[in-house]
Specification:
Layout: H1 4-7, E1 13-14, H2 22-35, H3 42-55, E2 59-61, E3 64-65, E4 68-70, E5 78-88, E6 98-106, H4 111-125, H5 128-136, H6 140-152
Parallel strand pairs: 1-5, 3-6, 4-6
Antiparallel strand pairs: 2-3, 5-6
Helix pairs in contact: 2-3
Length: 162
């Protein structure tokens, strides 16, 4: 299994999300992934992410959302990060605005990796100091550094061998 540091790159960061609603946020991420040559079909990604949202909001509380989905048109796992300085009405489970977003997109044939990576993202975001620091960071480079440092606090996941 990969760490967040293995997957998240500078060109996959939205430093200041402009959208004020869930669909707008997902569209901004889709444009980002298309411009980074990670996907070819923005609408398909938004459709898959909205289908997942219909099962229950990926806004997990504490100003955090982890939109995610499995997409047949991606050859590898994708992790992106975004921050909204003004907050987004995302339908979060605590009904509060969301400021920090981790997007996870995986190929359809990687359900185990998908769940393990979701768990890893969720684990680092439990740290309230990290959440505060991410909200206050002034540059994209600082966001990436903070995420890498927090991810590095946890052991590299072992790969199961059979």
């Amino acid at each position: 299994m990969a760490t967040i540091k293995d997957l998240l790159r500078y060109n996959l960061i939205l430093d200041d999300i402009e959208a004020s609603d869930k669909i707008g946020v997902l569209r901004e991420f889709a444009r980002l992934l298309k411009s980074a040559d990670k996907i070819t079909d923005e609408d398909e990604l938004v459709r898959v992410l909205l289908e997942r949202e219909m099962l229950g909001s990926t806004g997990i509380g504490d100003g955090v959302a982890i939109p995610h989905g499995k997409l047949h048109i991606v050859p590898e796992m994708i992790v992106a990060f975004g921050r909204s300085r003004k907050g987004v009405n995302y339908g979060s489970i605590d009904s509060k605005p969301v400021y920090l977003f981790f997007l996870l997109v995986t190929p359809e044939d990687m359900p185990g990796e998908h769940l393990r990576t979701l768990a890893r993202i969720s684990r680092i975001l439990k740290n309230p100091t990290l959440r505060d620091n991410l909200r206050q960071a002034s540059r994209s480079e600082d966001l990436l550094k903070l995420i890498y440092e927090e991810d590095g606090r946890y052991p590299q996941p072992a790969t199961a061998h059979r």
